[in-house]
Amino acid sequence: MKITKLNNLEKAINSSLAARVKSSTIRFNQLTIEVEIEDINKTILFLKTNEKCKFRQLIDITAVDYPKKERRFKLVYLLLSHENNLRIIINSNITEKTTVPSITKIYPSANWMEREVFDMYGITFKDHPDLRRILTDYEFEGYPLRKDFPLTGHTEVRYSENQKKVIYESVKLEQNYRDFDFESPWQGTKYIKDQIKDKD
Question: Which residues contact 177 (CB under 8 A, 6 or more apart)?
Fold first, then answer.
């Protein structure tokens, strides 16, 4: 039954958006379509307002980083139709310098989602009402979900007892974080035993 509904939906979308939809596939009980980024607003507006679609809820906006590709990022929109109990994924491949049209006027909830994508990947959105970092700190450098971002990050934050404030400094892994004590916790670790002896 669901496959039939998805097939009908795919035909309806392809017939109405023939000039915009580059490809469409049905996998894992979901319809996935690919469009150019210039057509994203008109495509999403159609999917929300058309009576056969009724995708009235935006589930998420995210991206995938392919550093070696010319179009580095795949921007992914996930929509849900409660009336039809169907989901759709809209993909669009963009370059690192592409400015993406914001869909906040279609889905107000896109405000925070687009800010997350900007914060994590560095993808900018045109006509966004408040495009600034949302998950990382104000002075954070780089974009954590890009594949070229180091796992340890560039800086670490700590409270300085001498300066009596929070400070930023380059990441340095202390040696004591690299040495693991594999003794049973019931026997106590060696450095705790040494501290107890010193007190005695």
Answer: none
